[in-house]
Amino acid sequence: MAPTDQPTRKPVRVWVDGCFDMMHYGHANALRQAKAMGDFLIVGVHSDAEIEKNKGPTVMKEAERYAAVAACKWVDLVVPNAPYNTTVEILREHNVDFCVHGDDITTMADGTDCYQAVKDAGLYRECKRTEGVSTTEMVGRMLLMTRNHHNRPAETGDSSISGFKSEKLGPFSDSGNHVHTTISHFLPTSKRIVQFSEGREPKETDRVVYVDGTFDLFHVGHVEFLKRAKKLGDFLIVGVHDDQTVNAIKGVNYPLMNLHERALSVLACRGVDEVIIGAPYSVTKDVLGSEYNVKVVAHGNTPTERDLDGSDPYKAKRGIYVEINNPNSTLTTHGIIERIIENRLM
């Protein structure tokens, strides 16, 4: 049989489902592992109503969660309003070969295993859960953000959140006990960074775009901004500021996610080609140097905090500077924290 006559292998279709509330690099790593087991990754995302019935209210609304999952570069298709209890029927409906879930147990409101039916049918695979991060753990960081985890006292007037007493919120774990929560000291290995990286270099003809920011609690506002930035050129480089710089400029206890966590979240976003980990707050010649011939420097049309010396971080690059209008500008890290506090008080 000639090589051209070889039968075409049927693509392996993989299913993952979940809440994906406050999409983080742990979610992205699970999706990366699932995609590596097959060829086409389908992600079912539960509705707000289904999650509230089985776990409680979400922080992010379902449309925001659908968009966040769709932005992950390993996802091929998002199925909205997926059933909380994974069934053989839903897998057959989407012509799926097997489903994948982390090596932790997910249960319905009545305590039954959400994946028991597909396990019994031999349609279940497991991936390794990413240690040190979960939505519950992230919520815990936000509820305790008034604690001094950057060893810098919050200044009066910095934020309405800075004066909020987290003790008013009570316990926030499902069991009613406080979750041990602190600022993350997660440090990725070089292997993990390589797993998240595309490894692509810009062509000589590529129009290179540079954006920078904190990208704390990576959300759909960030996704839309990066999507619009990528449309300005062919190759998108994202600078992520270090923890000390962010805290010195933003105050309170920002950032809630450390530099490496934030960098991995950005790397997992579709359309991002390269990340500068610990980029300077002001756009310098070092950033725009000979390695990447940057043609466009972009920023959102929201107020920009001054650098520590009081200077405009984009002043030196006004000739190639572009402002991006972001329709999701009302969705911010601060706004997400306020949602959590409001939910908790209710």
From TrEMBL:
SUPFAM superfamilies noted in UniProt: Nucleotidylyl transferase
Keyword Lipid biosynthesis attributed: yes
Swiss-Prot/TrEMBL keywords: Lipid biosynthesis, Lipid metabolism, Nucleotidyltransferase, Phospholipid biosynthesis, Phospholipid metabolism, Transferase
Pfam (any one): CTP_transf_like
This protein's record includes keyword Lipid biosynthesis: yes
Pathway: Phospholipid metabolism; phosphatidylethanolamine biosynthesis; phosphatidylethanolamine from ethanolamine: step 2/3; Lipid metabolism
MF terms (GO), sorted A to Z: ethanolamine-phosphate cytidylyltransferase activity
Example of a GO cellular component annotation carried by this entry: cytoplasm
Start and end residues of each Cytidyltransferase-like domain: 16-139, 210-305
One of the GO BP terms on file: phosphatidylethanolamine biosynthetic process
Top-rank taxon: Eukaryota
Record-listed E.C. numbers: 2.7.7.14
NCBIfam families (UniProt xref): cyt_tran_rel
Family from the record: Belongs to the cytidylyltransferase family.
UniProt protein name: ethanolamine-phosphate cytidylyltransferase
Organism this protein belongs to: Phycomyces blakesleeanus (strain ATCC 8743b / DSM 1359 / FGSC 10004 / NBRC 33097 / NRRL 1555)
